[in-house]
Amino acid sequence: MDQWWLWLVVAVAVVVIALGIVLAVRARSHGQVESAPEKPQVEPETSPPEAVAEPTPATPEIETPEPTAGRLVRLRERLARSKNSLGKGLLTLLSSDKLTDEEWEEIEDTLLAADVGVTDTTEIVDRLRERVKVLGSRTSSQVRALLQEELTTALGVEADRNLNTVTEDGPATVMVVGVNGAGKTTTCGKIARVLIADGNTVVMGAADTFRAAAADQLETWGTRVGAKVVRSHEGADPASVAFDAVKTAKDDQADVVLVDTAGRLQNKVGLMDELGKVKRVVEKHGPVCETLLVLDATTGQNGLQQAKVFTEVCDVTGVILTKLDGTAKGGIVIAVQRQLGVPVKLIGLGEGPDDLAPFEVESFVDALISVDEQ
Ligand SMILES: Nc1nc2c(ncn2[C@@H]2O[C@H](COP(=O)(O)OP(=O)(O)OP(=O)(O)O)[C@@H](O)[C@H]2O)c(=O)[nH]1
């Protein structure tokens, strides 16, 4: 009986010790688990993660153009300094008291050298001969006035040279066409700039899908002047880009949509097909208000022959003569109008954004016959 009690006491002691050990071990491991998250929970005392501090994209600054009035003054200054100035040559010749046949021939050559063209040169010289005969002896200011009148007549004051960009319904659609490198894309940008400065909203369509960089170039202009640009990938159907551009302009209730086309002239049929299609597709939205032919003034009479093809394939309503800053042959304007039967509406005077001037006959004639007095 005593032994039974002894065994019971030993068994209880063993159980108590075992329990103690188990509890101690559990308590230890529990403590470790609880302390474990403490490390990662410690927040770094630094600022928020870098991703939050992403830079906000800078809004492109839209430039304000200089007024278009007076832009021809620069041309006047440039032509006046030119050695081969049309004005200088003609005024000197016409001032001589008695004009011989040789001198009249020289006058003719001066006009031809200035790219006036044969028909107009003959007409101008015939009229001058007649009037000089009537006048008899003449002062230099009379000679200047005479020349001014004759050149003004040759250029014509009747034609409407305003850009037709006002419509009753929907955006005014303007198509810009011409041979390679004439300055179409640049001119689209310059026109957009002037229109926007006058309070219009403008969309430009990059329908020149032939040259990869053309759409990028137009987009750069768009960002610069604040015009939306509709474009597609290289080789895309130009007619569909033009259609989308007009649609976007309609949806946005824009005032004007300028469609820049590719300058291809490998063969007349291909050109006719492409331009004709672009125009037809655009006209599904409404009539095209202006089809502007961009012409490089430095290509002279040769360029005129190429340009004629455009007037045959699309109804050109106005000419933009670019790069007049690169030639002293301002007489090309007379030939362009005569041979194409379309008024020159704008002239390009350089690569800068403000180097586009409205064509005003009087200021232009004044620039043509200006003489550097210094
Ligand atoms: N000096 C001068 N350069 C001009 C004038 N207009 C355009 N240019 C330049 O002529 C070059 C051709 O101009 P673009 O606008 O690319 O000609 P484009 O007709 O669109 O050319 P394609 O797309 O190849 O048919 C560019 O270097 C222009 O900066 C201008 O009035 N004067």
Automatic annotation (TrEMBL):
Annotated ranges, domain SRP54-type proteins GTP-binding: 343-356
One Pfam family recorded for the sequence: SRP54_N
InterPro entries linked: AAA+_ATPase (IPR003593), P-loop_NTPase (IPR027417), Signal_recog_particl_SRP54_hlx (IPR013822), SR_rcpt_FtsY (IPR004390), SRP/SRP_N (IPR036225), SRP54_GTPase_dom (IPR000897), SRP54_N_sf (IPR042101)
GO biological process: SRP-dependent cotranslational protein targeting to membrane
Residues where GTP binds: 178-185, 260-264, 322-325
Family under the similarity heading: Belongs to the GTP-binding SRP family. FtsY subfamily.
Protein name: Signal recognition particle receptor FtsY
Annotated source species: Natronoglycomyces albus
